[in-house]
Structures are given as structure tokens and as C-alpha cells.
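Hey, can you fold this one?
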Amino acid sequence: MTGLRTLGLRKTYHSPPPVAAHAAGLGFFAARRAGPKSEIVALDGISLEVRAGEVFGLLGPNGAGKSTTVGILTTRVRPTAGQAWIGPHDVWKEQVPAKRLIGVVPQRPNLDFALTAREILLFHGAYFGLPSRERTRRAASLLDRFKLTDRADHIVRGFSGGMMQRLSLARAMMHDPSVLFLDEPSAGLDPQTRLLLWDIVREYNRGGKTILLTTHNMDEADALCHRIAIIDHGRIISLGTPAELKAGIPGGYLLRLRFARAVPDLLAPLAALSGVREVRAAAADAADLYADRGGSLIPEVVNLASAAGVDLLDVHIAEPSLENLFLHHTGRSLRE
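Sure. Predicted structure:
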């Protein structure tokens, strides 16, 4: 079995700053040529270890650095600093042996639209040196497993998004890689296709394969992953099993309250309620309560608000979840 690890991964991109030189008589293109470049930090020193045979998730919003991490590990993105290994191989010093160990399902399907589904799998198998009889057998088996047999000899240009995603995963598994990378694998999929994908991922992992997936779907991370690293702004902010991460939320329950007007003087009385572990101002007229109980707190919150002469407009109660954990660490929704 094969694991992977990174040490101090950093990736910065450079882009021109916003055009602000017209007053000096410079046009748009002159500003792009002459202006200083700004640095965008995509990864800020990420170190992690994915154990051989586990399903490991990178959970975070769009732009957090998940896809950049996968890009470095799969040799598509060169890091600014740091190292990454697939098994014993440094991915940038030993690219060929590292690539032989991995399969990649990109965020957006990159299939050859001029080929049939079967041809895509057969050509992929040939690229990795599989004998003709073996790649024919594997292609047929994967087409059946992914419910694509009836479309096996059709040009993929006419496939739905879900069918393309299933074929992308089948292609990545064609050479039986030790490590499988799934970048937002269920984005845009219907529920039935998503559940089929989850079943196949679990089955592949039971064969001893290591899987790293990126997602901003909390249900997906909770359902599939043995361990999860929550990533935001290019840094890992929390790491552990789903159960461990959810247990780290103060009190467990999150009550999101919205009032009719700003309520800064209400935060301290709310924090003094029995079972409330933490109170945070979510906005001038809103507060987040982390507490040991949920619905039973509402009458007491209403009484406090009434005594302060303000109406409680909205209450949302959430049980322990990875979404709540992300809110607690960052103060913003995973979907923002």
C-alpha cells in the first residue's frame, strides 16, 4: 500500500494589480506591462501525511487551496517551496515513477470528445502498458461497474455531466493505481449518481487503495473520509476524524440568531445562559451561540430579547457538523 505526504508546501501566484494608472496617461496594456505584480498565496506552508489505505479529505471553500494541493501532488503544479511524496518518490524529482502510482479525476472532465467511452479506457490502459487482453477485460468490467455498458461505443460528446464524471473515474482506475485523487468528485452530480460514486470509492478503498479527495460537501466528507483536514486561505486549520472534529465544537449545538436591530448589549446576557459555551457576534443584528442544548434555549433567548426591547426575527438550530466546525474556526460559511 502507498501513502503520501507533504512538507511545508507553499505556492504563490503573481498577477498584475488593478489598473490605476490612467490618471498618469498610461493605458490598460501599458499598466499591465509596467505595473508591479502582486503576490497571491494559494498555499501557505501545508504539511500533512495521508496514511496508506485511508480515505483522506481536504475540506474547504472554493479558493482555499485544495485543488492546488492536488495539483502539486499529481505533478501538474510546481510548488514555490516545500516537498511532496507519493510513497517513496519525490513527485518533482521522480515524476515518472510517481505518476505510475496515481490516478486522477480532475474537477472538470477532460475527456477526448472524439472517442467512445470504451476507446478512452483502452487508450488509457495502453498508455500505462497494459497488455491488450487485460485492458479489454478491465475496460468491460469498469464500464459495467459504472453503468456505462449500454453507451460504451458511443462518442462521449453526447454524454451527460454525470456520465462524463463516471467515465473520468473509470479511466483513473483503469491502470489500478495505488493512490487515487478525486478533486470535487460529486460537484454538480444528481443524488443517485453521487451515491453510486460513493459506493465505488468505498469499494476501491477496501482493496487497500489510498484515496485523497477534495470537497466542500460536508456530507461527502463525513460519509467517506477516515480523516479530514479543514483548509482555508492555504492553511490547515483543523485535522482529525469526522467524529473528533465535530467533538471539538463548543457545546455541540449551534444556534444562529437574528434580531430586529443591533444587539451588542445582548451578547453578555446570552453568554450567561445555562449551557451556553460561547457567543459570537455574526453581524450587528445577529449572534451565534454554541451550547449544550438546542430548542430548550429558545424561550430563554426570547425572554432576554423581550427584556431588552428587541424582537427575535429568526432562529436556526444545527446539531454538531463539519459545517459548524468550519463556522467556529473561520466565522464564515463553508459555502461562502
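Confidence is low (pLDDT under 50) at residues 16-35. Let me know if you want another pass with a different chain boundary.
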